[in-house]
Amino acid sequence: MPADLLRSSYNPVNKSPWRINVGCIYCFARPTHSYLNLSPGLDFETKLIAKRNVAELLRVELARKSYKPSPIIIGTATDCYQPIERELRLTRSVIEVLKDARHPFGIITKSSAVEHDLDLIAPMAADHLAAVYVTITTLDGELARKLEPRAAAPHRRLRTLRTLAEAGVPVGVSVGPQIPFVNEDMEQVLEAAWDAGARSAFYTVIRLPWEVAPLFKQWLELHYPQRAGRIMERIREMRGGKDYDADFATRMKGSGVWADLIRQRFEKATKRLGFSNDRTPLDLSAFRPPGAEGQGSLF
């Protein structure tokens, strides 16, 4: 089993059949292309790597006698609805395996293409086996095009939230990454997401591991030359004085005064609106290993 297919993490298992071409300048997964002797810049955005046998490998893993079910989160490192998903349908094949095994899962995405799999997701959601989280970085369409050039527009993501919620799928919103002096509309994003049907929320602050830092600095000089230095100063303030701090305890939300201000804003807004800050609880008791159905007893 490839290490990057099923990997233990805070969310017990996270998995994605794709590497990215959505093109988010801030994406912390960019350095993974270096492992393949490809560049984290242009190659990351133009050379997509697909795990074509991901569904088969997942089925084998779930059938292991030693396997213990825990919610699988799809899309934590790379968005599972890349444009080429329309052709290869790898994410759909993964959901089909999970559906057959009655295995709980969550999806995190920026794409409206998740709606195409609503016929699979909605019945599982009705059985407390599925939830979807949509990432909305900003409501500013122009800024979103700069940050995430090939992702769905913010208003389209809100429509996806509403479509899923109306179909009975528990939906949440990921408000991030928070970038000081760049996307400053967290409260407005949360309000719009609540109105669209999201009932849980979480956030992250920007992470700039390894090759991502120089790429992001170039982006800042192009789009925000007057503020670039101040933005990086605040990012370093949240990262112990460095461009990036890999400390597991702080890497998602940062540390220091500025990170604490972001946390306070988030907590105040979510409390006012009524959001839950916990992930949607999913049912583990219905899991049946692939191939187990109909085996019965010999006696």
Explain how this protein is built.
The chain has helices at 42-46, 54-63, 85-88, 90-101, 118-126, 141-147, 154-166, 186-196, 212-223, 228-238, 257-273, and strands at 7-8, 13-15, 72-74, 105-109, 130-135, 171-178, 200-205. It is globular, with a radius of gyration of 19 Å. A seven-stranded mixed sheet has the order 1-2-3-4-5-6-7, covered by helices on one side. Helix 2 packs parallel to helix 4 (90-101), helix 7 packs parallel to helix 8 (186-196) and helix 8 (186-196) packs parallel to helix 11. The longest helix has 17 residues, at 257-273. The protein has one domain: Alpha-Beta Barrel (TIM Barrel), CATH 3.20.20.70. By secondary structure, the chain is of the alpha/beta class.
What is the CATH fold-level name? Answer: TIM Barrel
Total domains: 1
Give the end-to-end Cα distance, rounded to a whole number of Å. Answer: 34 Å
- Gross morphology is globular
Which structural category do the helix and sheet elements fall into?
A: alpha/beta
CA-atom Rg in angstroms: 19 Å
As a percent range, the share of strand residues is: 5-15%
Low-pLDDT stretches are 1-15, 294-299
Question: From the 3D coordinates, which CATH architecture would you assign?
Answer: Alpha-Beta Barrel
Q: Quick one: how many beta strands? A: 7
What's the CATH class label? Alpha Beta
Strand order of the largest sheet: 1-2-3-4-5-6-7
* Run of helices and strands: EEHHEHHEHEHHEHEHHH
What is the overall pLDDT average?
88
Q: Name the CATH superfamily classification.
A: Aldolase class I
